[in-house]
Design goal:
single chain; mainly alpha
Length: about 350
Amino acid sequence: MGNVPNTGPSHVQQYLFNLAAFVIVVAGMRASSEILIPFLLAIFISVIANPLVIKLRSRGIPIIGAIVIVILGIIAIGIGITSLLGTSLNDFSDNLPQYKEMLNNSAANFFKFLEDRGVHISGSSIIERFDPGAAMSLTSSILSGLGGVLSSGLLIVLMVVFMLLEATIFKYKIRHIFGGKSDGASQVDSFSNTVNRYMLIKTGTSLATGIIATVWLMIIGVDYPLLWGFLTFLFNYVPTVGSIIAAVPPALLALIQFGVFSSFLSVAGYFVINITIGSIIEPRILGHGLGLSSLLVFISLLFWGWVFGPVGMVLSVPLTMMIKIALSNSESGKWMSTLMDAPMKFSSDK
């Protein structure tokens, strides 16, 4: 009797099926971004706010009262940010064409300076391909995109309320599903606790980075320091790449306002702030196990930015970090979590 042929899918076919499913999911996320973006922002806010609700409940405040206090605080912060940054963003957008023209003139003068000293460079072609004003336009589009998303603030707040209510009984549901002492329940608890800890610490360090950057730009005298401080706070969630993106607009603005020295001071200030907080303080608090590969950070910035736009760029690393934490809490996914780790972890293990 002959052997029964293996009719199951081969490994290659399985990989192709998985790749096709991934492409379909990504296309679906991009097509439904208008719905998913408020949902992701609500998750982001809920993860940060949930420890505060737990803290208030530990002091004897009922769950409804704790959520109301936290939601009122979130609304107050949102109104404060909108009132502080709204005028600055409008003024910056109105002056953007003038800033771009001044940057192009500064670049043209720089290339003329080099040509006068015998360095022959085609400055016009370089400016045409690498427009110095593009950074300003990108900054304006990112901030405007974030402002457009916040226009659905009521929907986001309502989702945050229901998510915080659900968070109070979510663990009990998981334990009921898996059993109190099962591996599934412990993995969900570990994932939830690690995500909460990461987001809370990252938000604290990002807030400190934004405040210090704002004060430094005020000292130098750069226009719209609150706007650049807020941008720094947002992009501090993206390690390495985010600090570079956030430092470019104020440095260019300092260049056209005061000259090279003030631009250098702006860049130096950002460098010191990010080295101190991002490379020294934050890893000691978070631990090297919650780091991401720099290549993965850059890829995630491009990927989530392509899928969800400006909000995706800001949430790129938190989203990727949640995936990494979920993989690290799964036996079958630990090898992928290891591939996503920062090189710093392995250098410190030697």
